[in-house]
# Entry
Amino acid sequence: MALIEKAWADLRGFDYWPDIGEATLETLTMTGCALLFTVIVGFVLGTLLFLTSPAHRSSRPAYRRVQIWAYRILSFAINLVRSIPFLILLILLIPATRGLVGTSLGTRGAIPPLVIASAPFFARLVESVLREVESGVLETCRAIGATTRQTVCWALLPEASAPLFAAITVTAIALIGYSAMAGVIGGGGLGDLAVRYGYQRFDTQVMIVTVAVLVLIVQIVQWGGDRLVARLAHN
Amino acid sequence: MIKIQNACKVYSTGAAEFQALNDVTLRIARGEIFGIIGRSGAGKSTLLRLINHLEEPTHGAVLIDDRDVGALDARQLRALRQRIGFVFQHFNLLHSKTVTENVRLPLKVAGRLAPQAQRQRVREVLALVGIADQGDKYPAALSGGQRQRVGIARALANNPDILLCDEATSALDPESTAAVLQLLLDIQRRLQLTIVLVTHSMNVIRAVADRVAVMDRGCVVESGRVADVFLRPCHEVTRTLLTESGFDTSVLSGATDLHRHVIELSYDGAVAGQPLLSRIARESGLDFSILAGSAGRLKDTAFGRFSIELAVEQAVQLQQFLAVCATHGVHAKLWHSAWH
# Structure
């Protein structure tokens, strides 16, 4: 009992709520913006991977050669970025980030490396999701004379919408984790707060509250994603 | 209207080559229902897919209204495919879209109609296939027969001249099969479509087809009017397929002595309505016993097919009997005879 009372007293005396609130907002901004760009870039890359993959090679030799090389180059580039540890990628990208958004610090500076790190990951998820779409869907589109763009936009995307949103959820949660690391380098967000107070100032309380907030965010994102996926599934 | 000339299709997977089609030549006339039958792996689906170039022939050509399909560029090929409906065995509906949206897809792709007119057209075809009230449902909420109706409605949306059906009834229960076949007959008559349908079931051929090609190991082994192929099959595969579908083609080996002959009589069309067997018996003055046989209908054609045993002592009597058969338009084939 005494222990609980002490914890409660500590929590009432906790005067870092404004910092926690600000850091939460920063994390949400970083993750949200990064997720938006990741989904756009990753979706385009993933769709290209799918359309150039061995299962969809054209019978026209010239076109086929373009597909083969596009797939090889794309696949290699994606593997390359994915094999670099995020922390090292962050440091490597500092000059590029400065060029892109004017600063390598703060929330803004964290977004480009986050997108570059997670877009290839999301692209692979998109590729495998599209691969799971029944082959009959593609055959139908060919049989009704659809262009590739029509096939992707009107058939492939709607058919894959539920697993695509599941993949977006997975990516969003991975991004929340990445954003904590990005914060350490450039400053900002819940990860930054946890490290500064918890690790550097030995203030365990701040660290625990920070982690609790992160846990809450992740739970909410997963719950929301699951609900959306369930609504989109018509099977 | 559809000509397939010396079509070959070879699939190469690594070192192994598989010849799916071997020098197939076919001609399909405008407005007919043409059946392609064979066992799985006989190449019938590949043959069907040549027509709208979902598969490209390794050698040979496909001509539709004398235009070489292989010579079309990508845009022309898409335009051609928009004029050819395709019905799939497993329906291939989009699960994420309602029935209406599924049927509207080819209209959106063709882009010839305004959105309002597209919706109007969807209502028309759904009414045509008898599911006017199911438009707002998702495919998962429909039965197999209803899903195939959606598949047919989608294939008809763009007012095609040709409808290709790949085992359209194979995934359905017997009741839905009969209903879908009736629907195909109905729309063929109303819209004057050319229908090419692939099946492994002789009963499907029997119910709807005008002409049929029998395939075995990549070759067309026999083709012609359905009545001819049913009543007088030439190839072993055809005979097996007929027997498996309950259409008995076996000839009972009677002919126990020198003067007994087993003859197979077959006829179809207008003559089938007349009392042929008794007339033949009377006019030839010869008695015979029926060993096996059946009479019935093939699509709209009445037919009869009987194995009879005839006892005659002189060759001239037998000749006379066969001549009487011929005057009545009855095919007679001598099976067992000690004289031959």
